[in-house]
C-alpha cells in the first residue's frame, strides 16, 4: 500500500531505495517517518502552487499607509493611551511571544539563536537573558507576572528548554514561561521528491513564522485571561515590550492587529514595507517593490511606501485565534540541500536544488479591517543580532542596546 502512495506522488527516490538491497531497518525507518509526518496531498498542492504567489502585477492596487507617529502624539493622547495600556498590563491581559525557532548558524554558533552569548559591558548574557530581564523589569514595575510564550522548533526545543532550566529561568517564575513547537513541512527537491538526509531521515523544516498562530493555539497553553499578544523575533534585543502607549492606542481604537513600523532610511533600504491593498494591510517585500513605488514621495517629502516592517506586532487574542483557522499561502524559498539519491549516493549540493515552504506571519493581516500602524524610531526599538560581523551583528546590536538603556535609566 505504501508503494502505491509513493507511485501516485512520484516519489521515485524512495521507491528505488525500498526496492534496493538497503538494510531493512533503514527501509522500515523511512516508511515509519512517511506515515507519521507526510501528508502527500497537502505537499503536492503546495509544490504545484510554488510559482503562483506574486501579487505585485498591478502596482496601482497599492495605496500608501498612514501611520500613527509616536513622536507626533500630544501629551493628552499619550496620557490617555498610557492609562489604558497600564490597566491592561496590571490586569494580566498582556503577554509576550518570542519567535525563537532558529539556530545561530549565521553567527557561527551551533545552538538555538536565543542561547547565543553577548558581551554587554564586560558581562556575558545570552539573548534569552536580555529578553528575560525586560520581562522581569515589567513584573516589578507593574506588580504582575507576565506570561512568556516561546516558539521553538523540533530541532531546538529540548536544548532551549534545558537552557532555561539550567539558568534557573533567569529569575522568572517557571510556570509563566511556556514553550511551543513550530510546525514543519518536508523540503522537496526541484522534481518534487522528498529530501532524505544522510541518516535517511526526511528533511523536515520549520514552515515559517506564519505557523505561530495554529502552533500556539493548538498547544492549549494560552492563559484564558490574555487579551493581547506582543510578538517579536528572538534576535531583536530591543523589543520594547513595555509600551503602554502602543497598547493603549490599540485598546482605545478597538484594533485587531497593530504593527510597529519605522520610516525607511532611503529608497534602497532592503526591508519590506506596509501598504494598503483594497484598504487591507499588506506587506510588500523589498524584492517585489517596483521602482515606481520605491521612490515615490508624499506631500511631506517622505517616502510614500516607506513604512518598514521591523517584525514587531501587537495582536488581539480574537484576531490571533481567527488566524489560527486561516489557510495561509505558502512562500517558496529555493535552497541548497544535500540528499540521498535513487542509487543510494549521498549528494552534496552547493547550489539551490530544493524548495522550502514557509508561511509569513503578516499574510493574515489582510483579513482585518481594524489595524494600526504605529511608527517608532528604528534605532530605539530594533537591534537585530543576525550576522557574525558588520551590519546587524552583535557589535551593532549591543551598541544600540546600551545607548537606549543608558538613556532610559
Mean pLDDT, all residues: 95
Report how far the terminal alpha carbons are from each other: 66 Å
Estimate the global geometry from the Cα principal axes. globular
Q: Considering DSSP H and I runs of 4 or more, what fraction of the residues is helical?
A: 25-40%
State the CATH topology: Spore Coat Polysaccharide Biosynthesis Protein SpsA, Chain A
Largest sheet: 8 strands, mixed
The CATH level-2 architecture is identified as Alpha-Beta Complex
* Number of discrete helical segments: 13
Amount of beta strand: 15-25%
How is the largest sheet built, in terms of strand order?
2-20-12-15-11-3-6-7
Poorly predicted tracts of residues:
none
Structural class: alpha/beta
Q: What CATH first level would be assigned? A: Alpha Beta
Radius of gyration from CA coordinates: 23 Å
Number of strands: 20
Number of domains: 1
CATH superfamily: Spore Coat Polysaccharide Biosynthesis Protein SpsA, Chain A
Task: Describe the protein in words.
It is a single chain. With 409 residues, the chain is an alpha/beta fold. Helices cover 31% and strands 22% of the residues. It has 13 helices and 20 strands. It has helices at residues 2-8, 12-18, 24-37, 40-48, 75-90, 127-142, 157-166, 212-219, 244-252, 291-294, 317-324, 378-381, 394-408, and strands at residues 62-63, 68-69, 94-99, 117-120, 123-126, 148-152, 177-181, 184-186, 188-189, 204-206, 228-233, 257-263, 273-277, 280-284, 307-316, 331-335, 339-340, 346-347, 354-358, 371-375. A hairpin with a 5-residue loop joins strand 17 (339-340) and strand 18 (346-347).
Amino acid at each position: 500500500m505504501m508503494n502505491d502512495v509513493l507511485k501516485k506522488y512520484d516519489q521515485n527516490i524512495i521507491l528505488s531505495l525500498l526496492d534496493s538491497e538497503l538494510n531493512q531497518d533503514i527501509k522500515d525507518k523511512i516508511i515509519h517517518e512517511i506515515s507519521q509526518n507526510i501528508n502527500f496531498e497537502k505537499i503536492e498542492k503546495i509544490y504545484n502552487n510554488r510559482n503562483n504567489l506574486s501579487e505585485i502585477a498591478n502596482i496601482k492596487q497599492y495605496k500608501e499607509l498612514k501611520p500613527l507617529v509616536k513622536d507626533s502624539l500630544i501629551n493628552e493622547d499619550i496620557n490617555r493611551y498610557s492609562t489604558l495600556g497600564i490597566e491592561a498590563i496590571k490586569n494580566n491581559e498582556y503577554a509576550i511571544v518570542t519567535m525563537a525557532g532558529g539556530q545561530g548558524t549565521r553567527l557561527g554558533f551551533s545552538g538555538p539563536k536565543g542561547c547565543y552569548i553577548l558581551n554587554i559591558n564586560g558581562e556575558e548574557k545570552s539573548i534569552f537573558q536580555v529578553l528575560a530581564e525586560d520581562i522581569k523589569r515589567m513584573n516589578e514595575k507593574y506588580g504582575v507576572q507576565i506570561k512568556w510564550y516561546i516558539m521553538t522548533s523540533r530541532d531546538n526545543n529540548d536544548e532551549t528548554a534545558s537552557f532555561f532550566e539550567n539558568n534557573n529561568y533567569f529569575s522568572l517564575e517557571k510556570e509563566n514561561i511556556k514553550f511551543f513547537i513550530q510546525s514543519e513541512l518536508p523540503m522537496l527537491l526541484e522534481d518534487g521528491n522528498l529530501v532524505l538526509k544522510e541518516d535517511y531521515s526526511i528533511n523536515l523544516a520549520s514552515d515559517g513564522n506564519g505557523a505561530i498562530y495554529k502552533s500556539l493555539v493548538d498547544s492549549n497553553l494560552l492563559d484564558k485571561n490574555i487579551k493581547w499578544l506582543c510578538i517579536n523575533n528572538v534576535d531583536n534585543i530591543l523589543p520594547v515590550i513595555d509600551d503602554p502607549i502602543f497598547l493603549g492606542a490599540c485598546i482605545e481604537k478597538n484594533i485587531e492587529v497593530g504593527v510597529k513600523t519605522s520610516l525607511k532610511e532611503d529608497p534602497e533600504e532592503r526591508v519590506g514595507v506596509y501598504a494598503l491593498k483594497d484598504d487591507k494591510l499588506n506587506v510588500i517585500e523589498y524584492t517585489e517593490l517596483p521602482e515606481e513605488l520605491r521612490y515615490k514621495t508624499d506631500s511631506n517629502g517622505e517616502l510614500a511606501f516607506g513604512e518598514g516592517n521591523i517584525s514587531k506586532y501587537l495582536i488581539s487574542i480574537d484576531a490571533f485565534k481567527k488566524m489560527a483557522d486561516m489557510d495561509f499561502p505558502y512562500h517558496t524559498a529555493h535552497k541548497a540541500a544535500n540528499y540521498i539519491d535513487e542509487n543510494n549516493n549521498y549528494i552534496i549540493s552547493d547550489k539551490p536544488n530544493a524548495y522550502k515552504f514557509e508561511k509569513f506571519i503578516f499574510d493574515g493581516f489582510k483579513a482585518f479591517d481594524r489595524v494600526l500602524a504605529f511608527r517608532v524610531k528604528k534605532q530605539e526599538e530594533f537591534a537585530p543580532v543576525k550576522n557574525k560581523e558588520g551590519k546587524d551583528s552583535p557589535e551593532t546590536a549591543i551598541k544600540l542596546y546600551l545607548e537606549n538603556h543608558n538613556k532610559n535609566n
